[in-house]
Model the fold of this input.
Amino acid sequence: MDRDPRAPWAPFQLAAGCCAIAFVVLLVLALVLDFIAPPPVDGAVPTLEFIARHKPGYVAEQLLWTVPNILAVPVFAALFLACAPAAQGLARGLALGGALVGGLSWALILAIPVTSRGSLVLVYLSDRYAGAADDAARQRISAAAEAVIAENNTPAVAGVLSAAGILLMSVAMVRGGFSRAVGWLGIAAGALGLLAEALRYLVPALYGGYGLLMWAWFVAVGIVLIRLGRKGRRSPAARV
Done:
């Protein structure tokens, strides 16, 4: 009986599938907190005063927008390992490119001090603003906060790369014959993501649509990887 080359990676694929589901669940929790107490996205003084009134919820939301991004990294690695055995030529190259661009982009997001819905840096500035001794000190702190808010409202290269990674990996899935339905969903998500990043302030509704498609893709990928991992663990090859 031919050995499935993906079987030895079954535990990793299972874990990566769980990471994909957890990634979406944690981001949904962040969105819930955002609906409960929407933070301002412009204006230094209103933002700093808002944080002072809602500090625990604001900190929790920022952590939920930031920390789960690391969970996306193993998902792209597991997808490459799942696609590579059946992929040939261009499809394999696309899968490798998708894994590198997608995985690195989500890791890079962790290094960016803003989330587009705020920043933990603003928490520190809010504390400083509340304890400022005079108007001059408050003006200096609010000017620093304005700089953070301006960065928060600027499209990041990591956002473009994450959409490109989804698109590349999904094209490889379709061309390589690995879960084509999920691949087409990813193509739609990645293409809309690139368009949404380019037109973020002209057509902001596109970003919301991209977010929903991206989350749906991660959930679908998670289910596929979990099934693949369970199947591989039952395979004799996985126990050799």
Q: What stands out?
A: Residues 91 and 172 are 5 Å apart (CA to CA). The mean pLDDT is 87. DSSP finds ten helices and no strands in the chain. Residues 7-40+69-119+155-235 form one domain.
